[in-house]
């Protein structure tokens, strides 16, 4: 049995998600201790419990310690299952982080599957659903992940109520990737949304982002505005946010910002635009957030994968440490100097086929 210390690196939920996803697809029993030890509220919260339940369901796993506040979890995966599933966080806990837990397993399911996840789609400290749709999923497809994501309803903090559906087509293996140069910048796209709020909130977010980017880049920019008739708005809300993504010759890089009470819409839009400019100035092929999500896929793929990222974050370093604990034979190398921009991440995958 492999023991993973949840206090290493960033000491948060990323350790649990990575450990469960890889252990599940490799059918290795693990025990995770000191879960989320470096957080103000350590232990399993509802979002994490939903991830545990989901991955346990898909792998017919034996689980011990899956309760609210638990700081230790035993997970013994068995046979992979497929079909139609619904998992509900019950709060505004992030649906995209539940998806992160499942991601390594999805290409290896024995048949086509539909997975519905309910909770928060656009909440702090997690990838917004539009980042997953427009930035990460195109990159994951390069690895051989065949999956569509349907946004049924948005959910914001604190009320949640969001719904996504995943339509998964198993490929039973993954491809190595080489994303070292992004190539010329072609266009910038984005989506600015608001729910249970006046239309002008989403419009002002989009305009602020457009103005900031166009002044600096002078390239085509298309930011869609998403809003709802207040009398027909199905969301619990209120909430708003914007995701921007740069389409280059060889890759996609993204950035985002969420609205909050007392935070001007113009600040939301400009914040996302500033983040995207920072990503582009690194000359990396992928942004810092895509990097840590790609590593588990690169590990399972056949052959050598290489990406350049705008920054080697603590999240990415933690993912790499967890990977090495579960798969000691894997070879991962990274640039070590903070001055290295972009950062090069090289993985010799194990070539898992199921």
UniProtKB/TrEMBL annotation:
Species, as recorded: Ignisphaera aggregans
Domain named RNA 3'-terminal phosphate cyclase: residues = 8-327
Q: What class of enzyme is it?
A: ligase
The reply to whether Coiled coil figures as a keyword in the UniProt entry is no
Q: Which reaction does it catalyse?
A: a 3'-end 3'-phospho-ribonucleotide-RNA + ATP = a 3'-end 2',3'-cyclophospho-ribonucleotide-RNA + AMP + diphosphate
One matching Pfam family is: RTC
Could you identify this protein by its name?
RNA 3'-terminal phosphate cyclase
What is this enzyme's EC? 6.5.1.4
The main location is cytoplasm
Could you tell me which PANTHER family the record lists for this protein? RNA 3' TERMINAL PHOSPHATE CYCLASE, RNA 3'-TERMINAL PHOSPHATE CYCLASE
This chain's function reads: Catalyzes the conversion of 3'-phosphate to a 2',3'-cyclic phosphodiester at the end of RNA. The mechanism of action of the enzyme occurs in 3 steps: (A) adenylation of the enzyme by ATP; (B) transfer of adenylate to an RNA-N3'P to produce RNA-N3'PP5'A; (C) and attack of the adjacent 2'-hydroxyl on the 3'-phosphorus in the diester linkage to produce the cyclic end product. The biological role of this enzyme is unknown but it is likely to function in some aspects of cellular RNA processing.
